[in-house]
Amino acid sequence: MANVAKKVSWSGRDDDEDGRAGETTPLLNGTGPGAAGSGRQLTPSPFLRIGQLSNVDLNEDIHELETEVPRQRPNEIPHNEKLLSLKYESLDYDNSENQLFLEEERRINHAAFRTVEIKRWVICAMIGILTGLVACFIDIVVENLAGLKYRVVKDNIDKFTAKGGLSFSLLLWATLNASVVMVGSLIVAFIEPVAAGSGIPQIKCYLNGVKIPHVVRLKTLVIKVCGVILSVVGGLAVGKEGPMIHSGSVIAAGISQGRSTSLKRDFKIFEYFRRDTEKRDFVSAGAAAGVSAAFGAPVGGVLFSLEEGASFWNQFLTWRIFFASMISTFTLNSVLSVYHGNAWDLSSPGLINFGRFDSEKMGYTIQEIPIFIFMGVVGGILGALFNALNYWLTMFRIRYIHRPCLQVVEAMLVAAVTATVGFVMIYCSRDCQPIQGSSVAYPLQLFCADGEYNSMATAFFNTPEKSVVNLFHDPPGSYNPMTLGMFTLMYFFLACWTYGLTVSAGVFIPSLLIGAAWGRLFGISLSYLTKGSIWADPGKYALMGAAAQLGGIVRMTLSLTVIMMEATGNVTYGFPIMLVLMTAKIVGDYFVEGLYDMHIQLQSVPFLHWEAPVTSHSLTAREVMSTPVTCLRRIERVGTVVDILSDTSSNHNGFPVVESNPDTTQVAGLRGLILRSQLIVLLKHKVFVERANLNLVQRRLKLKDFRDAYPRFPPIQSIHVSQDERECMIDLSEFMNPSPYTVPQEASLPRVFKLFRALGLRHLVVVDNRNEVVGMVTRKDLARYRLGKEGLEELSLAQT
Amino acid sequence: CRAVLPVLALALLGLAAAAGPRQTPALELAQELAEELWSAGLPGDLPELEPECRSLLAAFAEGSAALTGCLGRRARPVRLCQGCHGHYRRLLAQYDSIASAVGNSSESHNCAKSILTSDRLQIVVTLSEFFNETWEAANCANCLKNSSEGLSNSTEEFLDLFNKSLTCFEHNLQGQAIDLSPNNYTEVCKNCNETYTKLNDLYNHLQRMNRQGGESAHSAHLCIDVEDAMNITRKLWSRTFNCSLPCSDTVPVIAVSSFILFLPIVFYLSSFLHSKQKKRILILPKRIQSNANLVNIQEKYS
């Protein structure tokens, strides 16, 4: 049981000690009978001893280890940000170049590869079309339902303004909101919790290479779409743009596989793409198509995918993604134009359209640049404040409001309070503006003079998208400063409170709205200070404020600049928007990190950033890796494999394959790497040496068999292996990846990190100079190092 | 010689416009002037305006002058559509006859070409465009009968009601100076409420009908006469007489909203106190020096 101490010395190097340790050490995972069995079997070889110990995910032999570890840690701690969850696994971006793969490549001729290429394009086109259609669906349904709601409430308010009893209107509004949001929250909380929020953090993780359970399922898509409709109609301070990105990704993942496991339908098409590598490429196309449909920004969408998944990029993929984006925005545009009655006009490229900014007074001069930069600073500070508040709130939610019914109640309360705040603001506002034409969708008169409407109501009594556009484009003088100030203040807290609820909703539009409100306020006060100079058009400052606020909250850079630029349809705004976003990011990063990164961290996702922490060069692979490693021999006993796989305490996914020669004099060097999924397929098809010798195997296993099982491989428990079969042998050499990536023990952390990040690896084997396996580096080993406030810090692993 | 024609046209027009209000037979005057110019030494063989065209032009000039006068005189309070639709229609007819008229002599010398398109300024076109745009902007078509003259029934009804309300206002204000304190107007509010509400409802009804009928954003407006009449009445009603609804229900609204605002506080407090805090189970990784790692790091880097 002195294994920890011995392990330390063992891995220090030195064969001899190694051997002894191997003989005396019981298996760490000794609880399973299989582990014990294999232990017995492996004792002759010092390296096979490693075999029992797992490597990929860190295992949970707390009890055994704790007896040894001098400094005992508490078993249970409250949730905090410095954790990594065991729930998340990596995607296999790396292709397993085993013999089957090579055979298939030989079999498929050149022409067939060309059809594969054509299929990729077809899939991208379909992704674009479907994403566009989903966006249309959301838009149209939201427009109609929200219109219905606002009409009902408006009629009610009009009636009770005359008769008295406005508190009933308030109750009606609050109840309507709360009940709609309740439905939206119920389906999210009870059916598919991963559909909560904007989905951008999840997609970021997916593109980063983390497999978030359920994130790209059809069920998630359905819940997401319904959820976002309900939460926007429910009047929450949310937008429908962020969820579009998630929806696009799900669509991409679904189409590229040619089947849906949720529906249990297999269309027998696109079978070639059934693996993580291809799927992830298509998901990046789907995310781009989603951005493009949401903002009418095809280039922005491509850049979004580039920014989030850039380590796995090539120009062909970029071009395909751009194609999907364009198709998506075009589909949305044409369908919406038909819906709005002017077919083929193609004037509504995105869900949110900032309107046209090309009139004379919307231009800017060089003197305004410093003003814009100042707005960027303000946006950064406000964004940081938003994130900090949301951080505390989210922490509280994770710790205390984790039961689904509580989450639903919370969402309902927020909806009711949002309505109440809106009502009280409208009720108290004395800012009346004459109705000009039909620019106001639902003019509420309340106590204004006849022929006038309450200007606070244009901001609160409307869907957030429309309010944003109103703030950008209403003529100067439509809002008085007091209204805008109160609105900004209230909406800031409401939006901050809303983000992180168990409803599917985005944060883009609320941020834009907050920013537009204070930006407009800023513009108004500026023109007041300068005695009404010509260049102080409040709409322009509203735009810059919106950009600053959004940049301060989400901290996206390149893609956000382009998205904003495309949404305004004005290239000349590119420069000021870039400056504003840059300043907001710099200022905001000084305080706290971006909202999405913060939520990723709070979810304990092992997310790999662009680069390793800067001060980590003196950490070597030896300190980073997990050890000892559960290895398999090239020709392994079936029983051992089954036992290793069914060991509940260690659900590792990759196993180094070592030479099966039990001779102690010969080094058992690394021969390859095999994945859990492959082993399961092998066991399922009973590809055993003995059966092959008896000619019991009807056909050779093909790559197709592995693909068919993807992505939900059956659990090991569902595979029945009889007692006789346990004694059979299994030959892995055909199926393992014969050339896994390896690093020496002395490699520094940034070096390992770069390899890992750039190639999208899942397992990186650490070998010594004789090619013996000494450890394994996985995503969680790398993600746990983080640059904190006081230098490098290490995150703990936890079960969530 | 091309430069001469615009001058001529301008002169004709200016004169016609000046002459219009005085109801002088503009045609004669124009001819007089033309002859004057002629005698001033213009070569005889210039391609002159056909007499027929000249009369058409003069008629147009007279019509536009009349319309301008009408528009100007009825600018405030706005009565454009009621008062000037006759002029406007006549002018349209005159313009049409210019545009379609063909001169006697040859195809190339028809009036449309020589009047409308033979110079840079094209004053006749500009004028006619201006009138059309004004008419469009005022949206007069909305309160006129289709094709035939006269106001549409709904407009008549509205104006009727409008006059009634004004009369009612006047009646109730008799003997009172305008600068009395606002609360003295309550009588007006009480007595004229019925008429005013009817008027307001009718207006809203018209607006709704209009919005349903029309597709484009422009036709969302009613015609300017009706809009302006309503605006005047509303301003009198709400601003001058101060009859609009008073802010009411403050107490119940405050009560209900503070109740709703109070709920989240209860919710968060109770979930803080009663809900079991979620704990995470820490897992110790299998790692070399795993227990000393953090210490090492901190020593190294702090």
Automatic annotation (TrEMBL), chain A:
One of its GO terms (molecular function) is chloride:proton antiporter activity. The chain crosses the membrane at residues 121-142, 170-191, 221-239, 282-305, 317-339, 369-393, 482-501, 507-529, 541-565, 571-592. This is Chloride channel protein. Residues 1-41 are annotated as: Disordered. The keyword S-adenosyl-L-methionine does not apply. It is a multi-pass membrane protein. The keyword Aminoacyl-tRNA synthetase does not apply. One of its GO terms (cellular component) is lysosomal membrane. Residues 736-794 form the CBS domain. It comes from Rhabdornis inornatus. Belongs to the chloride channel (TC 2.A.49) family. InterPro entries: CBS_dom, CBS_dom_sf, CIC-7, Cl-channel/antiporter, Cl-channel_core, ClC. It is found in: Membrane. Its main location: membrane. Keywords: CBS domain, Chloride, Ion transport, Membrane, Repeat, Transmembrane, Transmembrane helix, Transport.
TrEMBL record, chain B:
GO terms for cellular component: cytosol. It comes from Rhabdornis inornatus. This is OSTM1 protein. It holds the Pfam family OSTMP1. The chain crosses the membrane at residues 251-273. The keyword Transport does not apply. Residues 1-18 form the signal peptide. The keyword Cell division does not apply. The lineage of its organism: Eukaryota, Metazoa, Chordata, Craniata, Vertebrata.
